[in-house]
Amino acid sequence: MDLEVVTIGTELLLGFTVDTNSAVLGRDLSAIGARIVRRTTVADDPEAIGQAVSQALSRASIVITTGGLGPTRDDVSKRVVADLFGFPLRFDEAIWQDLIARFRRLGRDPAPANRVQAEVPEGATVIPNRWGTAPALWFEGPPGIVIMLPGVPNEMRNLVRHEVVPRLSTRNQAALVVRSRMLRTTSIPESSLAQRIGDLDEKLTPLTLAYLPGLHGVDLRLTAWNLPPEEADRLLDQAAGRLRELLGDFIYGEGETDLAAILLDALRQRGLRLALAESCTGGLVGARVTEIAGSSDVFAGGVVCYDNAVKVALLGVEPGLIEAHGAVSEPVAVAMARGADARLSASAAIGLTGIAGPGGGSEDKPVGTVCFGWVVNDRIEQARYVFLGNRHEVRQRAAQYALHRLWRMV
User: What's the pTM value of the predicted model, to 2 decimals?
Assistant: First the structure.
């Protein structure tokens, strides 16, 4: 099943918006044996949209578009594709009433411009959008099949996974698939990963292994190419198991797993409460934790203690400790963790203090130096690490390392 994708939006061409929708489509559709053979991006221009969709239909029997279904003047995609199929637009009162109800649940009334979102082409299938206001549309006729999706990433992603993929799967049941499994690693450089994995990647045929380094670690993507679904899943399970044997707890999850969620689950299972004391990260670790729904039953709170006086006043760090070792030191980080642990009545805590840059470094403590302290009940660990990158990267990597080390302790 070969498809083409047409992404619509002047903002995509200008570079103000990054096209993440195509990546989602590529992953989700290849997993059911549907292959994207071409992607085209066009501006919010009726002529450009019409040409792009017509040309795509001349090469592929199915075309998926994203964008141009909103209520503003530049959202013209629906009308253009309706004209290609000869489907007149009609106002659907049921869709309009659903929009009114959706807005009122948010304490608002729809604007008059929103009425155009209730105009649907006669002959097209309307796919309800439970995640937004613009319904998706499925055109099917002599020109082929066009599936129109909103451009808002969350809406598009959910419509693809819950509506489009199931519908296309029924048409492609005997297909060979391309499926991937992502293993998430952290706190280990890419070169060290490769050394531990050795020549395993050469023995994975017909699977392939890709290294995907990022701010929070290196993701390992296993991919099964053009195999029956059951065989692909079996081989991916085997390969993922072998990698887990080789890498141990450097692997913390799969897919889009967040390390903070993994840590919170581990703390919850052991009845532990978490407290934080952050200096150079300025609350980033706390933000990571509270991003996870349900964190309130585990996370007691945190102190952002950028100034040394705050470390002393709120966390009870001894001034002499700072004078003797410096604010960026393992003893101070441990004292911060112990202070947060005691004052917030927790049973697990993290303290971290460092030099994020671009200035402030020295020969002994270069820019990127971060010192950590961890407390779990009566157990204490400490570490010093020098992270590479700019200020943003150092802070992000320090927050990830702090979470990972505590997870390993717990």
Answer: 0.79
